[in-house]
Amino acid sequence: MDDISDKDYVIIDHFLRDDLYAEIRSFFLDKLPVFKEAGIGTDMDKHVDNNVRGDFTYWLDRKRDANIQELWNLVDEVIHMFNRYCFLSLSGYEFHLAHYPSGGHYDKHLDQFENRNNRMISVVIYLNEGWQKGDGGELEIFENDNESFLVEPIAGRCVMFKSAKVPHAVLEAHKSRFSLTGWLLYQPSALGQFFG
Ligand SMILES: O=C(O)CCC(=O)C(=O)O
Ligand SMILES: [Fe+2]
User: Coiled-coil stretches, from where to where (predicted)?
Assistant: First the structure.
């Protein structure tokens, strides 16, 4: 909590209990056949551009995806922590599973839309077992205009950052890259489920 207040991001390894990690990974693999190519922008202004991003996503829905209840409980807990210790007023969230096939990347960006700015905190949890240097798909975090560093997308690692403040990119993956990505919102929003 201190790190995200001071540095705008935090990296936490072994973020999930082993059983929850295993549950989410197997849920991910089950859903893989129904992932859709991710677009850019909100539903009003959305298009797919493989030059900018090359991932496939599955938007989670708390009601439909009730079998991963433990994840939803954790999301509630994390929101509660941010509200309590960082004095935020988070009251909603949206999460998707993301698959970057080999060759996929995501150009430098902020997690904000031009016509919607309620994403406060971005959360990414990686599910890449046995990730090794050379597999690619590192998350590049830009601290200011000239400095950036790479985060290896290893299994169980969680990265959280301020959505509107931290520019970031996903380097080209050389192997399939799996993650769970979400945004904690200032206002409740049902928009996420329409982004599919
Ligand atoms: O998967 C990651 O490391 C980051 C993904 C991302 O930046 C996004 O989906 O907006
Ligand atoms: Fe992003």
Answer: none
Specify whether domain 2-39+53-125+156-188 bears CATH 3.40.47.10: no
> In Å, how far are 38, 91, 130, 178 from 99, measured between CA atoms?
10, 27, 16, 5
Q: Is 106 in the pocket of ligand 1 (CB under 6 A)?
A: yes
Q: How far is the CA of 39 from the centre of ligand 1 (A)?
A: 13
Check pocket membership of 160 for ligand 1, CB cut-off 6 A.
no
Q: Which residues contact 191 (CB under 8 A, 6 or more apart)?
A: 42, 43, 94, 116
- The interface predicted TM-score of the complex, written ipTM, equals 0.99
* Residue 7 CB contacts under 8 Å (≥ 6 apart), including other chains: 143
What integer pLDDT is reported at residue 183 of this predicted model? 97
Cα(75) to centroid(ligand 1), Å: 18
Answer yes or no: is pLDDT of 2 > 90. Answer: no
Q: Mean pLDDT across the chain, nearest whole number?
A: 91
Give domain limits for the chain. 2-39+53-125+156-188
Model pTM?
0.91
Q: How far is the CA of 73 from the centre of ligand 1 (A)?
A: 22
Nearest ligand 1 atom, CA 169: 7
Nearest-CA residue for ligand 1 atom 9 is 181
